[in-house]
Amino acid sequence: MAMLIVAGLCLLFLAWLIGKPYFIEWQRRRLYNRPFPQAWLEILRRRVPYYRLLPTDLQAQLRGHMQVFIAEKTFVGCADLHITDDMRVTIAAQACLLLLNRKTDYYPKLERILVYPGAFRVKKQEVDEAGVLSEYLDDLSGESWGDGQVVLSWEDAIDDARFFGDGRNVVIHEFAHQLDQEKGAATGAPILARAEHYQPWSEALGAEYAHLRQQADDELDTLFDYYGAESPAEFFAVITEVFFEQPQEMAAMHPELYRQLQSFYRVDPFGWR
Asked: What Pfam families does its record include (predicted)?
């Protein structure tokens, strides 16, 4: 009898494992297709003017993705911040821009978005050329962690949404890191559609990354923030910000880099303005 019970439990567990992906997909389709709340739409139009620039089909995609994203991710207020729909909608709209026109698993490693009222302070370590380790405090507007969390400053999130076009957006930056981290540590090479795409990706981004590092060393004017010269992972996040915020400038000044991001994200923001 005990053996039959164990066998039955094993069969139920196996059925759950097999059926879980189908249930998740069914649940996501249900969330994606349900009517978008009018209150959320008002927040979206007020907080994220970029939304009005999107073609109508991409607006519909964005609304659907946002409903899945908000249902699956937990928003946590930090430093006594109370989470509101205003925050959820504004952050989700910017995060889901990176999911348009692509098969997505909705940032599968991400579980929580920690939101601070403004810039937050973190302890960092640095090793100098002599090998001496030092610690210091740094004020940040966002971080993407590999343990299922993104940390954001609400003040910066709403400012970046409002002033779209300056090439800087903390939500887009941190969620580009999340895409990069889907395969493990962030390296500047997210999961591409085909294996043969990695070589041209590496060649284009590698050359541009080296060029930005040289520009940063020489303190020359550049379309990309010098922060992108810190590492290939930061370079990918920085150029993603510019791709969505300043597509005309990027396409003109860095055409091959623009083509690589256009192929990866499967959208062309050039025509949205």
From this structure: Peptidase_M90 (PF06167)
